[in-house]
Amino acid sequence: MAQQNAIYDARTLGRPKMLVLGFQHMFAMFGATVLVPALTGLSVSATLLFAGIGTLLFHLLTKMKVPAFLGSSFAFIGGYAAVVAVGATMGLDQAHSLPYACVGVFFAGLMYFILAGLFKAFGVKKVMRYFPPVVTGPIIIAIGLTLSGSAINNCMANVWIALLATLIIIVCNIWGKGMIRIIPVLLGVIGSYLIAACFGQVDFSGVHAAKWVGMPFSWENTAFAVFKSPDWGLVVTAIITIVPISLATMIEHIGDMCAISSTTGINYLEDPGLHRTLMGDGLATALASLFGAPANTTYGENTGVLNLTKVFDPRVIRIAAVLAILFSFCPKFAAIVAAMPAATIGGVSLVLYGMISAVGVRNLVENQVDLTVSRNLLIAALILVLAIGINYGPGSLTFNVGKTSIALSGLAVAALVGIILNAVLPGKDYEFGTSKSGDMTVDFGSDDRPRS
Predict the structure, then answer these.
(1) Tell me: the pLDDT tens digits for 224-255?
(2) Are 341 and 69 in contact (CB under 8 A)?
(3) For the segment 304-354, what is each residue's pLDDT rounded down to a tens digit?
(4) How many other C-beta atoms are found inside a 10 Å radius of the C-beta of residue 300?
(5) d(CA 49, CA 327)
(6) Residues near 378 by Cβ (< 8 Å), separated by ≥ 6?
(7) How far apart are CA 382 and CA 195, in angstroms?
(8) How far apart are CA 46 and CA 325, in angstroms?
(9) Alpha-carbon radius of gyration of the chain
(10) Three-state DSSP class for 157?
(11) 218: phi then psi, degrees, rounded to nearest 5
């Protein structure tokens, strides 16, 4: 019924308003999605193209049911940097090392199919027993909190612009009427961007220099370029370095699916099933990497938009995907996005990242996870402290396999520790398949239903 209500609400909005909602979802993912190629040296336009294509492929594999947008994954940034550093020791510059990293990401994408196969072979119940609310809840909280540092850093670029973006979102969502109430993020981006431009806080030099139409990627920057004259040692190093990161991103994927299910009131873990969502995410990541774009992942920012707007129709997400594809062929538009003030990104992210963590808290509360029980308290505590501590401390946990150095992010370490502790500690108080609301990690009430 929740899904029918969500679709009905979107239809009553009409096509023009759905188009605006699509723009909002596209802008919601822009800040983080564009930041990944900016940090790694990958193509912004290719990133937009394969975020859109990857999202459409994801929807195709998930029976057009899941309102998820796939954007650039931050989890692999360390992997790209590590491969570039190894390439530098071999006399390769960043442009020639990145395609090797993309090969590693391709194999990381294939790991999703392996986990999807386990779901299909053994059933969701047997696999999901390792991902109860006491594990997924703190992981969802940690996803938002580990991203919070980047939001604050961006806000510090101009506190007043960031505050304006945040205030616009709050005012529009709480006191806005009609369409204003369901596009607060888009209005926050546009409003703060325009004010920043008026006060000379935006550098448009890149926009003036950019062409109106152009190809999103060049062949020499793709993974295929590696095999013209490959260094097989660097190929193997890239695979060994980057594939373990997929352990974290797959856990993040499950957490994101739980968060989307919690937000919409629809059990996507059951239908279309995690095996389908994992295959969709893995296919999007593998395809993007082949053409020199960053790895894809289900985007928390867009889950935050769903939570704010209460419009859950997957067609709105597909509109955003098509828009991303169209704009990827416009270098000038990519330059406009790249010129977006960091403070605007920070102010918007402040709200959306907080929404992610808040869903994780609601996960624990509404499933009545008993944190007076020592096993539950230990699992939650270690997940949170490892994810946040490693992220804001050393940045990663590094160890050597032979001559290869492998770095695991705080979220990867936390997820692995949480899963292992839940599996070995006695006294489990949750069993997948016995409670529909629990399987979706939250007990839904009437207040969570979509609104027009």
Answers:
(1) 988 888 888 788 878 877 887 786 678 778 87
(2) no
(3) 778 777 888 889 899 999 999 998 998 887 788 778 888 988 888 888 778
(4) 29
(5) 8
(6) 421, 425
(7) 43
(8) 9
(9) 21
(10) coil
(11) -115, 145
Evaluate whether 102 touches 223 at the Cβ level (below 8 Å). yes
As to burial, measured by CB atoms within 10 angstroms (0-12 exposed, 13-18 middle, 19+ buried), residue 181 is middle
The token duo for 13 is: 């909005």
Contact 221, 86 (CB under 8 A): no
What angle is formed at CA 253 by the lines to CA 398 and CA 139, rounded to 5 degrees?
A: 65
Cα gap 440→280, rounded to integer Å = 19
Residue type, 85: A
What pLDDT score does 3 carry?
46
Q: Which two tokens stand for residue 418?
A: 């949480």
Identity of residue 82:
A
Residue 89's contacts (CB-CB under 8 Å, 6 or more residues apart) are none
Half-sphere exposure of 360 (CA within 13 A, CB side): 26
What are the beta bridge partners of residue 400?
405
Report helix angle 374-392 to 133-155, nearest 10.
Answer: 30
pLDDT digits (tens, 9 = 90+) for 19-44: 888 888 887 776 667 767 866 778 88
Are the CB atoms for 312 and 39 separated by under 8 Å? Answer: no
The one-letter amino acid at 334: A
